[in-house]
Specification:
85% of the residues lie in helices and 0% in strands. It is mainly α and 78 residues long.
Length: 78
């Protein structure tokens, strides 16, 4: 799970930087890399980044019910 958490965190950072670029300059980095924001490949990339964000929600939601430290421990042992 640690590997999955690192990968999803990296994808969320990439998505956040893309949002920053869109907000500051209107430039879509992911769309530019994958041939335009309307291409199937770019849309798949957006979905993967979105799924990574959902994955990272899991410890956040668990921290409300278990406590933050316990949620972190639980995620590392899965």
């Amino acid at each position: 799970m640690r590997y999955m958490n690192l990968v999803t965190l990296a994808l969320i950072i990439i998505g956040g930087l893309n949002w920053l670029a869109m907000g500051v300059s209107g430039f879509d980095i992911i769309g530019a890399v994958f041939g335009g924001s309307g291409t199937v490949v770019a849309r798949v990339a957006y979905v993967v980044v979105g799924l990574a964000a959902i994955w990272q929600f899991m410890p956040g939601f668990q921290s409300f019910t278990m406590g933050e430290v316990d949620a972190e421990r639980h995620m590392h042992h899965q």
